[in-house]
Amino acid sequence: MRWQRVVLVLAACALCASCTSASADRSGGSGPPTVLVLANNDESLDGAPAVTRFVERVRELSDGRVRVDVQSSWGGGYDEVGVVRAVGAGQADLGWAGTRVMDLVGVDAFRPLHAPFLVGSYAAQSAVVGDPLAGELLAELAPLGVTGLALAADQLRMPAAAARPLLTPADFAGLVFRTAASGAQESGLRALGAVPKAGRGSPGRLDGVDAVETMWWTYAINGQYGPMPYVTSNAALWPRSLAIFANTERLGGLTEQQRGWLVQAGQDASSWSTAHAQDRDAEQVKRVCRFGARVATATPDQLAALRSAAQPVYAALRADARTAAVLRRVEGLVAGAVPGPPVSLPAGCAYRPGEEQNRTPDLPALAGPGDPGTLPQGVYRLTLTRQHLLDQGVSEPEADLNAGVFTYTLRAGTWQYRQQPAVPGRATSTTTTCEGWYAVGDNTASFTTTTTYDNGTCAPLTWSARWTANGSMLTWDEVSVPDFGPIWSAGPWQRIDA
Q1: Which of 102, 117, 141, 171 would bridge with 166, disulfide CB 3.0–4.6 Å?
Q2: For residue range 405-426, what is the model confidence (pLDDT) as tens digits?
């Protein structure tokens, strides 16, 4: 659901590591804690459990004498390359980024990890992350002015599409494919015949694309199952492995004991990640299936054809002596890994061939304010509690973002809401606004959202719902976008301007 995604741009002084370094006791003993700024690309660490583990272990190992100050939406957010460069320049003490972006900052050693369909199981990813190769890859970051502290495992990335499941190379051909910025991943998609579209922006923004490479957490938390309902779960394109790193000069300025805590925390986070990368899959699969996702399974022959189509990527990696050496080691580790069982699907979630032909088309967008009909116009109030959202199966991060007091205005074919968040610490602004147009036919209203944000949406682009008026109360049901239903039809709207 997570419709609230306005990003708070950090103040300039907060971006300077020198502003946050407390006067540490160089002996590592008593005194004020040493504060290290960690640049976080995302809005929170909810989607990076290994980094959360690292932060917790630093606190535990140091008994609070070293504190990691996580600064989220760094530089406006959704810019992993910017995080790497900021840490290298000393603007932050610590940071993390997906290994997928390292070739964009001149480090090609990680490219084999993102060769299509190579590291295609959690067992394979664990074998790579737990091997001495991980330390050798992290050492390649040194020219950037950063020191690698951990290579960590995360969820596997898979293809999801709007019109049909992607099972063969022909299914990929010509599709505009949303991907995170990554030279390796863009090359992989081109080899499969797709047209990669990479860049900054929320993973929830999928306008103008036909497909997306995603993982279960991103697919669920950003509502990607709405515009991209067909996901091929066993065709893992590549892992979302990540690197945690420190500014080399800042690290060298710490005491030996403090450095030891950071190194140990990195090792602990890496080891922990290999055992827990898959922890949230089952819960998230259950959620997206509830809201209409259709999970397809490629046959062995289809998987073989996909791997064959990706061979130009492997040829390019073997043409370079350094990436060829890494590729050979990764292939050896993958060959020795025994994949675990696939995630189980709820009844009715598995894709059935041909069902996409019967899918209900999206509601067309309104071109302007429509006929308000007999829907009572005015200003309405709705309190949406966190517990209500949790009871509806919404995840805790989404519930924190969407709980609050909503003031809705319906007037002359235009609508607007203003949200006072119930959990200010998780909201990205004190209030959130959203607006658009509506049109009414009998007891059903159709809505179009006109508000746009650089990093996401505040409501679906279009939806419809049935309304019932009873005195000063207005209730809604049959919301056409299932995951928006818990917000729009949470309870009676109380008219407050009568």
Answers
A1: 171
A2: 999 999 999 999 999 888 765 5
In the structure encoding, which two tokens stand for residue 39, read together? 């640049």
Handedness of CA 167, 170, 176, 179 (dihedral sign): positive
Whether 387 and 329 map to the same domain: the answer is no
Residue pLDDT, tens place only, 299-330: 999 999 999 999 999 999 999 999 999 999 99
Largest interatomic CA distance in the chain: 76
Alpha carbon distance 214, 240 (integer Å): 9
Give residue-wise pLDDT tens across range 74-85: 998 889 999 999
Q: Which of 204, 219, 132 is nearest to 395 (CA)?
A: 219
- Cα separation, 159 vs 211, in Å, equals 7
Q: Among residues 359, 392, 426, which one ends one of the domains?
A: 359
Ordered DSSP codes for 418-465: EEEES-TTTSSSSSEEEEEEEEEETTEEEEEE---BTTB-SS-SEEEE
Which residues are 463's β-sheet partners?
447
Give the tens place of pLDDT for each residue, 359-390: 766 788 899 999 999 999 999 999 999 888 88
Does 96 share its domain with 216?
Answer: yes
Domains held by the chain: number: 2
| CATH code of residue 166 | 3.40.190.170
Instruction: Give CA–CA dist 265/242, Å, rounded.
Output: 15
- Measured distance CA(234)–CA(216) in Å, rounded: 12
Which residue type is seen at 107? V
| pLDDT value at residue 23 | 38
Q: Is 429 a residue whose pLDDT tops 90?
A: no
* Alpha-carbon gap, residue 169 to 189, rounded angstroms: 10
Q: Which of 3, 51, 38, 488 is nearest to 266 (CA)?
A: 51
Classified as helix, coil or strand, 107 is coil
In what helix (H) or strand (E) does residue 272 lie, and over which residues does it extend?
Answer: helix 256-276
What is the per-residue pLDDT across 195-214, written as a single tens digit (0 to 9) for each?
A: 999 976 666 678 789 999 99
Residue 364, domain member (yes or no): no
How far apart (Å, rounded) are the C-alpha atoms in residues 488 and 382?
9
Count of beta carbons in the 10 Å neighbourhood of residue 12: 8
User: What range defines the domain where residue 466 resides?
Assistant: 378-495
Per-residue model confidence (pLDDT) at position 292: 85
- 2 in any annotated domain: no
Domain boundary among 327, 359, 391: 359
Secondary structure of 339-405 as H, E, C letters: CCCCCCCCCCCECCCCHHHHCCCCCCCCCCCCCCCCCCCEEEEEEECHHHHHHCCCCHHHHHHHCEE
Looking at the structure, do residues 119 and 173 belong to the same domain, yes or no? yes
Asked if residue 298 and residue 184 are part of one domain, the reply reads yes
The count of C-alpha atoms lying within 13 angstroms of the C-alpha of 139, restricted to the half-sphere facing its C-beta, is 5
The two structure tokens encoding residue 131: 């091997």
